[in-house]
Amino acid sequence: MKILVTATSFGPDSKSPAMEKLRSFADALIFNPHGRPLSEDELISLLPGCAGCVAGLDFFSKKTLENAPELAVISRYGAGVDRVDLAAARAGGVAVCNTPGVNAQAVAELTMALLLCVARKIPFLDRSTREGQWPRSTGMELYGKTIGILGLGAVGKAVAQRAKGFSMRLLAYDPYIDTAYTRANGITAAGFDEAVREADFLCLHLPLTEETRHIISGKVIGSMKQGAVLINTARGGLIDEAAAYESLKSGHLGGMGLDVYEAEPPQTSPLFTLENVVLTPHTASHTKEATAAMAALSVQNLIEVLSGKSCIYRVC
After folding, report:
1. Is the pTM of this model over 0.90?
2. What range does the domain containing 124 cover?
3. How far apart are CA 168 and CA 173, in angstroms?
4. 252 in catalytic set
5. pLDDT given at position 260
6. Same domain for 254 and 146
7. Please, are residues 155 and 105 in contact by the beta-carbon 8 Å criterion?
8. Which of 76, 83, 205, 282 is catalytic?
9. Does 282 qualify as catalytic in the annotation?
10. Are residues 128 and 76 in the same domain?
11. Known catalytic residue: 241?
């Protein structure tokens, strides 16, 4: 049995228990040769003969799936499945699994790191100090501010717990909000418009779907507080980046922290020219603890499906 492994932090040099388990199960392993998410055609060239794939942020389109007749399971090394054509997977009898929640702590911590970096201009101050400058810069405190959390799943809940430690007021929007959790944890359940309008810091933790694409539009950004900060560690397509750039340039939007982008990797962007934007390369889940947990669960899911067992993390 041949398995393709495309997740970039789960490569051939890994000596993790998950990799050893996968090597014991498979007859042959094929690894991502490019060190980045694979395109439709790159996947098509690697998938022939593969029964399963431990997948990173690759694009499994209808064309890809139609050209992989032996593929039985795509086991996502992560939670998001927006880059898999689920309708085509169902039509082709391909199981799709994911690893929800196992990277929540890592993503929440980077969310708070970006929030602090933007609020206190840490990258600018670090760079200036290294260059021999001694700038005076006035930042913004988190204490007593309102954080709007869009999406109160595992990551959103972890962000809320950390924000509580900064004595922030917690607002959360989620179409399927857990009201028992919000009441027990001092979180105010809010509508989308209310959360956007009242937030000093707006953090995105929503999945990317046709309904949520560009949910942070120019109109929505315009309804945010003057000087508010926007943080996205979920999916790049949630934000209209062109509209965000104009708002940042005008000063209406006070700052932005991005770990994800509409195009990845972003070869160039006007956002790169702005000092009030802090950027990281889709690295929120890349901690030793989270990558080990994602590897373990993604391999477990793949083996369960290919062994004919029930997999509780099967999306379709």
Report:
1. yes
2. 104-279
3. 16
4. no
5. 97
6. yes
7. no
8. 282
9. yes
10. no
11. no
